[in-house]
Amino acid sequence: MSSFPERRLRRTRRTPAMRRLSTEHHLAAAQLVLPVFVKEGIDAAQPIASMPGVMQHPLADIAAVVADAAEAGIGGVMLFGVPAVRDAEGSGAVADDGILNRAIRVARDTARGAVTVQADLCLDEFTDHGHCGLLAADGSVDNDATLEVYARMAVAQARAGAEVLGLSGMMDGQVAVIRAALDAAGHTDVALLAYSAKYASAFYGPFRDAVESTLQGDRRTYQLDPANGREGVAEAMQDIAEGADYVMVKPAGPYLDVLARVADAATVPVWAYQVSGEYAMIELAARAGAIDRERAIGESLLGIRRAGADVILTYWAREVADWLRSGKEIA
Ligand code: PBG
Q: Is 250 a catalytic residue?
């Protein structure tokens, strides 16, 4: 109390202009990335029931989606494929004519450098069992056998024109193995985004609808325990040592402490993924009249930024870019 009334913290909050003067964190369209789902074998976009406002797109939509993202000035599109056929090895992931690799090619040809083309590198959308890797005879996920497939998937994605590969499978050693495979194939310029601190989260629920996941069980033998913070930092440090160009924390909102710790420790840019469940919670609460949708979106994104994210993957990237362009007040 000794410094009152000399130090009145309300002084700088008095008017909108005064508040703008002391705003510590801003959102920028260039640092928002839009996840995009492309589904094989459909001819019109289909809504995803648990993610109101998000669609599964046919390949024929991808050029328009990418052109629109570029025009809006967002930083990138992260492509996810939903194949028509799945098998035990996830062969659709490595095939040049697999749905994801075809979408990357279309995106690359449309983007022409105006927006970055990014691709999810994981087997879960392509395997019939829904796990992120190959299964051993005992049903466990075989880390090292999976790495060989990831290496081939990475080269196929790079060949198709992806500029940033999103390594979301949580296999040990994936960054090092993929970096070596890309370099050996001449793709030294393709950047690696390591989903380093990826937690075994209930907040991926709606995404599993979006990619029509066949997973039985869970991913707790490879994704992180939600109770552990230090281990998330260790994963990020390990990925940087293996050559990651960016590290990510995922989900974002429930893991802001991990994000802040990774941001303190990292020597590369730090990304955060505001996942499908975080999206659905706000959309559905707003539809129920419980919260102000736009302010809640803005506040959720500013919280992620304040915790230390440089780049945010968010299903609202496109909409928020419009808000920023029109000068709308965020949150
Ligand atoms: C794995 C992957 C997942 C998400 C992104 N990449 C799902 C999982 O690990 O189960 C989730 C994204 C979201 O929930 O929005 N390919």
A: yes
